[in-house]
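Deviations from the work plan: none for this task. Representative record:
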Amino acid sequence: MAIIIDENTNVIVQGATGNQGRFHTRQMLAYGTRVVAGTSPGKGGQEVEGVRIYDTVAAAMEDHRVDASCIFIPAPYARDAAFEAIEAGIKVVVIITEHIPVHDEMDIINFARQKGATVIGPNTFGIVSSGKCKIGIPSNQFFVPGPVGVVARSGTLTYEIVANLTAGGIGQTTVVGLGGDRVVGLSFVDVLQRFEKDPETKAVVLVGEIGGNQEEEASLFIKKMSKPVVAYIAGKSAPPGKRMGHAGAIIERGKGTYEGKVRALKEAGASVAALPFEVPELIRELIG
Amino acid sequence: MKLFEYMGKELFSGYGITVPRGRMASTPGEAAAVAAEIGGEVVVKSQILSGKRGKGGGILFAASPAEAEDAAAKILGSTVQGLKVESVLVEEKIKIDRELYLAITVDGSARKPVLIASASGGMDIEDVPDEDIVKYHIDTFVGLQPYAAREITRRLGLTGPPAGEMNRLLPLLYRIFREKDAELVEINPLVVSGDKLIAADAKVTIDDEALYRQKGLPHVEERTEAEQKAHALGLSYVQLEGNIAVMANGAGITMGTLDTLQHFGGRPANFLDAGGGTGTEATAKALEILLETNPRVILINIFGGITRCDDVANALVKVKNEIGIPVPVVIRLVGTNEETGVRILRENGFEAYRMMREAAAKAVEIANSGN
């Protein structure tokens, strides 16, 4: 078992003929992801890494069953691409694109809710069900199967933690990148609920950061969970009022501070790592 | 991008929201001229991108053009809330019967716009108790329709002509929020003045990611020079006060790197997120920005996903060969195309670490040596 995607998930890549789309189509195939088609307007009939390209999502779906889409479309056109996937009935839409205007993000998620689709991102590294399916951009080598679910707001920091887990002999069920923007499809709570129900997931790692109140909301759910949670929050050293790269990562009016989040998580029973590389040790203490 | 109050008010006025009569002035003489044009009592308000101006002496009243000139002379060039004042807004003093609060912003946890209103205006909304605040989420596909405006007005307890004015104003404010790609539109206070509602202040923040399609707006720059340079390259840069220059790829890992440096007793000079997929050219430019801050050491922490290790290695070599790197560089490089990247580094005399903790400890050791 895994959450959201698994070895039977058929994936299309929107924007497969661009630089990033092409590179990561190859990487995803190498990981074993079932990339069944790609789209690129005006390039229907071409092939990328042996994958057939279609002009539109609907055209790809005439020939293939599609469960998920991975979007590499530039920000100004990303809303259109996401709408296209959702309208076509794709139930998992992973939006890698960064710098999408927040109003477009609200529209995308609004439409996804109407159509019952799950949006991962925008501005995410994607999602990996280790050993089964990777949709997104992380380097393949670090994701191996095992008992730990990982949910994170940021990308590279997650690779850091997952690589540390893997180096310590601890594999993962599914690793989910929520995305670094203020408005994204999934919350920590949405993913924690799925991990709580997944029989293979024995413990969960939550990688948060300063700003917003997502970690505080997650704490309320962690209190009710049967599985142990280890958290790391980035931004302990960040000065207030400065936006640390992510739209969401800013301490405003004394809210969203490192201390507040750590307090809420500890009160909920989570173990909190002070530094990223302490995560594997804490996991090992909890699940042996 | 934050707009100055006078820009926000021009925007409001263009949409039919009532604002006090007035204009921006950047010299005392101009302020006097505006005051003469308005006639009667005026208020002279410092234009800075921060609230709480009244407490900092940034808002003065004047009964005549001569007084307005004096007030502007006092405020212009002074520092209010830590910011230098370069312009003032001179406008008519309005009669205040009652002050309300009104804002529309993005609610990240609901993933929807939220309208926040209160009958207790004029103060920081954070200080208003929850029971005195009306919150109304808006479906972006429906918009803020007249029925919603009537409901919000009812919950605020407004009656008579101001209620009618509020019903008219709310959809206009939402239109500005949507059409201008705003993250925040705030009126505090929104003044009940006789039968009228007047926006006595205007706070507007435009989504930076949408500026490419918001051509009609004025440009306001809040960043330092180095921050602007980095932004133009698509990098996210924040200046800090230490002596270890940091470049990493991804906001989270950059924060994690700063936290780790601090844990080992080091002081980061900056936050520089080189982002995902940044090529050789941009990475080289990023390094040049770091060098300009005269650090003791540079720490590069790359975990390549979309970023390729060979691009980073090539950038480092390019900067070394073209402009030279006068300080020690500590590099941690793993991920996509790691082997090629590390090989390029070795061939050019750089050593690469695999573990972030080792690289961070090394950088701190160098930075603190000889102190």
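Chain A has nine helices and 14 strands.
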